From TrEMBL, chain A:
Pfam families: Adaptin_N (PF01602). The lineage of its organism: Eukaryota, Metazoa, Chordata, Craniata, Vertebrata. This is AP-1 complex subunit gamma. It comes from Dicentrarchus labrax. Belongs to the adaptor complexes large subunit family. It is a peripheral membrane protein. It is found in: Cytoplasmic vesicle membrane; Endomembrane system; Golgi apparatus.
UniProtKB/TrEMBL annotation, chain B:
This is AP complex subunit sigma. Transmembrane segments: none annotated. One of its GO terms (molecular function) is clathrin adaptor activity. The keyword Membrane applies. The keyword Transport applies. Belongs to the adaptor complexes small subunit family.
Length: 643, 154
């Protein structure tokens, strides 16, 4: 049915057409300047028939982003007009152009006060609406008694608006909550849904601001339960029905108020238990509106002192939400489950399968939430299967989630690793898949882990060597691989290994691999440092003179490298070859197990012990103590081992 | 409570703005820019909820118009979608198969309807019929009761 009661404002529509037909921004500005000039001129004239049209034009111009403050006083004038059409546009203008910060807003206080007692409810309505929209604290204080009067004695149309006005007043001037409390209480007896809704919003506001008030309103729980029951069980009510749910807006507000009243209170929570169970079970969940009510019910159940059976019911609803076709509902479920994974861990665990499936969801937001939740659900009993899913996710996840996924996997692996070998395998898997997205501490952490797993040194170095042959682009992986090869090169060359198939690795193969890393443009300077040190460390296990020469030649090339760090290392290593060959074996011997001390143990600190160990060793073996300068050099070289 | 409601076209042109808290003109302009760029950048089949500062942004597209509603954190997102939908239904009933042009050329009516449905950032009337009746009655008043208005008000 096309609405014909209200004839459109021709002057307004003509202006809109003129503005829209402007082909450029410049042309539009021209039209608007002309129109504004005309409007200004009209404002200055005395009362003519077209005042409301003029102000409406100005409001349109304002919406396009052009300045309109010269219309503020016109709003004030129009509001004071006896004509409804002018009041209507005047109040609209006030709401759009004035706010409590403008001086002009005070000028309308008197008009509002008068209009609140107007004999026509539509005029009263304009005043109420404007007060609730932009009433300043001062205006609120001034008009509060009038609003309270309207709350008690007027028709439903006015009462519902007065209720929301009271809400606004309480938000602006908290102490005035006391004034409205009695009226709010009696409004719960109203039948009109608009008034009831306003009453519930007002009571909620009062309870949220004042603990005493909240305790007084707890007595209303049975009344609220009755009202809800009426809505849930009642027959079809065409006026309030939305897809089979009777007034979902009111239902949700009541549920929220019940949540506030039931929190931390056994008595109140008991009184609403049955109702919540009823709503949770009977509400139709095929449409969004039903799910909106269910969602609010779940939130209430989880925040009051509900029975465990009811809690499980609530979590199950969330579990069902996860399977819903509507991605909004899946997203809501994820958010809610995330909030309760700490307090209701076991209940959430029951839905782990569904949650893990959501890692494959099309929607990026759902994926992100599924990741957070999955990581929170890893435990000692499910770590193997969860890790499989998470590693699978990592290989295909969106780039913005990779860093988070990688670090989450590392943390979970560290907490729940069933074995050291599993732990090392998992970390290697992450480095192979997402090595570019891991944090810097990963490398020293992994090295520390490896040194601690002494039975797995052979297995680890073989695995890393093979990984290195496949791909040298992932810097973290390459760095750890180089370190291991340098450290456990003898195990690599020995060939046989308990945990993997035996494979022949010659000295040339190993040196080839390290040289490839050194020469690759993909290798960062830090990575080259690792490779260079590893090459140097291999001097000890390598027996053939040919390879010793090869090592020395690799090292000397970097003596003139443009990177200062590499150059320094190369020069010092060369020194080890020439002048300090007798020290070389001791300096480059196997690292002791690194203690995991405080987080972020840096380069220098953890070498305190090893250096002492080496020096003590020398003393014990009867070798002369070294002169001061070489001791300093030893310090530097050993520091470089633990990068 | 709801903080603001914006309607804008696919080209980012603003068609309606309702603010439920006092905000400076400058801040309003910034928010409008942020909302339009955020919402227009969304993929077609994403979920309708966004996070922005400490608020939840609920948006939905109806034909050529985007409805963008900002709510506080304790509010129910799914119900917010219903609020948007209800407003669209009210516009549709009033204009008859409402389209963007109706809202452009009759923007003040769109505000009048909104002001019978929402108030102070909360829902004012939950019955569609009640809102429609109130708007019709107000329009009638504007048309025919001009003389009544000029009588003194007591």
């Amino acid at each position: 049915m096309h609405h014909t009661a209200m004839s459109p404002s021709v002057p307004l529509q003509e202006m809109i057409r003129a503005i829209r037909s402007a082909r450029t921004q410049c042309e539009e500005r021209g039209v608007i300047q002309r129109e504004c000039a005309a409007i200004r001129a009209q404002f200055r004239q005395s009362d003519n028939g077209g005042r409301s049209h003029n102000l409406a034009k100005l409001l349109y111009v304002h919406m396009l982003g052009y300045p309109a403050h010269f219309g503020q006083m016109e709003c004030v004038r129009m509001i004071a007009s006896p004509r409804y059409s002018e009041k209507r546009v005047g109040y609209l203008g006030a709401m759009m152009l004035l706010d409590e910060k403008q001086d002009a807003s005070l000028l309308i206080t008197n008009s509002i006060k008068n209009d609140l007692s107007h004999s026509n409810q539509y005029v009263q309505s304009l005043a109420l609406c404007t007060l609730a929209c932009m009433g300043s604290a001062e205006m609120c204080r001034d008009l509060a008694p009038e609003i309270d009067r309207l709350l008690r004695a007027s028709n439903s149309y006015i009462k519902k608006k007065a209720a929301l006005c009271a809400v606004h007043i309480v938000r602006k001037v908290h102490d005035l909550g006391e004034l409205f409390t009695p009226a709010a209480r009696s409004l719960l007896a109203e039948k009109n849904h608009g008034v009831l809704h306003g009453a519930v919003v007002l009571i909620t506001e009062l309870c949220e601001r004042n603990q005493e008030t909240l305790e007084r309103f707890r007595k209303t729980v049975p009344d609220l339960v009755q009202i809800m029951k009426g809505l849930v069980i009642s027959g079809y009510s065409p006026e309030h029905d939305v897809a089979g749910i009777s007034d979902p807006f009111l239902q949700v507000r009541i549920l929220r108020l019940l949540r506030i009243l039931g929190r931390n209170n056994e008595g109140a929570s008991d009184a609403m238990n049955d109702l919540l169970a009823q709503v949770a079970t009977n509400t139709d969940s095929t449409k969004t509106v039903g799910n909106a009510v269910l969602y609010e019910t779940v939130l209430t159940v989880l925040h009051i002192k509900s029975e465990s059976g009811l809690r499980v019911l609530a979590v199950n609803i969330l579990g069902r939400f996860l399977l819903n076709n509507d991605r909004n509902i899946r997203y809501i479920a994820m958010i809610s489950l995330q909030k309760i994974v700490g307090t209701d861990h076991n209940a959430v665990q029951r839905h782990r399968g569904t949650i893990v499936d959501c890692l494959k969801d099309q929607d990026a937001s759902v994926k992100r939430r599924a990741l957070d939740l999955s990581l929170a659900l890893v435990s000692a009993s499910n770590v193997r299967s969860m890790m499989k899913e998470l590693l699978l996710f990592l290989s295909s996840c969106p780039p913005e989630l990779r860093a988070q996924a990688a670090s989450g996997i590392f943390n979970a692996a560290e907490r729940y690793a069933p074995s050291q070998r599993w732990h090392i395998d998992t970390i290697l898997h992450v480095l192979t898949t997402a090595g570019g997205d891991v944090r810097d501490e990963t490398v020293p952490n992994l090295i520390q882990l490896i040194t601690n797993a002494s039975e797995l040194h052979c297995y680890t170095v073989h695995k890393l060597y093979r990984a290195l042959l496949t791909d040298i682009s992932q810097q973290s992986l390459v760095q750890v691989a180089c370190w291991c090869i340098g450290e456990y090169g003898d195990l690599l060359l020995r060939g046989e290994c308990q945990e993997t198939e035996p494979v022949q690795v010659t000295e040339d193969d190993v040196l080839d691999a390290l040289e490839t890393v050194l020469q690759s443009h993909m290798s960062s300077p830090a990575t080259r440092g690792f490779a260079l040190t590893a090459t140097m460390k291999l001097r000890t296990p390598l027996s053939l003179t040919a390879n010793t020469d090869r090592i020395q030649s690799i090292v000397s090339i970097y003596g003139s490298c443009i990177d200062v760090e590499l150059q320094q290392r190369a020069v010092e290593y060369n020194a080890l070859f020439r002048k300090y060959d007798h020290m070389r074996a001791a300096v480059l011997e196997r690292m002791p197990v690194i203690e995991k001390n405080s987080p972020g143990h840096t380069n220098g600190e953890s070498t305190g012990e090893p250096i002492k160990d080496i020096q003590t060793l020398k003393v014990k073996q009867g070798e002369p103590l070294l002169p001061q300068q070489p001791a300093n050099q030893v310090l530097t070289l050993t520091q470089m081992h633990v990068v | 409570m709801m903080r603001f409601l914006l309607l804008f076209s696919r080209q980012g042109k603003l068609r309606l703005q309702k603010w439920f808290t006092p905000i400076s003109e400058r801040e309003k302009k910034k928010i409008i820019r942020d909302m339009t760029s955020m919402v227009l950048a969304r993929q077609p089949r994403s979920c309708n909820f966004l996070h922005w500062k400490d608020l939840k942004i609920i948006y939905k597209r109806y034909a050529s118009l985007y409805f963008c509603l900002a709510i506080e954190n304790q509010e129910n997102e799914l119900l917010a979608l219903e609020v948007i939908h209800r407003y669209v239904e009210l516009l549709d009933k009033y204009f008859g198969n409402v389209c963007e042009l109706d809202i452009i050329f009759n923007f003040e009516k769109a505000y009048f309807i909104l002001d019978e449905f929402l108030m102070g950032g909360e829902i004012q009337e939950t019955s569609k019929q009640m809102v429609n009746r109130s708007i019709e009655a107000s329009d009638m008043l504007q048309e025919t009761m001009e003389e009544y208005m000029s009588k003194p008000a007591f």
